Sequence to fold (98 residues):
Amino acid sequence: MPIYEYRCSSCGFQKEYLRKLSDPVLTDCPECGKETFSKMLSAAGFQLKGSGWYATDFKNSGAKPAAKPDATTASGAKDKGDAGRCEARCEVRHQARR
Fold:
């Protein structure tokens, strides 16, 4: 249920009320009794409860992780990784069949 802030334009009384969306708007001031009690426009306040995503879940402020540098071999040539090893094994097998 949302929290609405009301203020009386006659006496200045101000209070927050927890109300359903379907509840009628309050018009009578509880302090002076006049029909000058109106809903104020204020920032929405809410609380996240239970399991889920929270502001603390994003510790890096949405920044993307840094790119990993390419691996190089001792000779300074770029390592082809698994693909390079596969090509070397396939070449050895191919030469053995000749």
Notes: The CA atoms of residues 39 and 89 lie 77 Å apart.
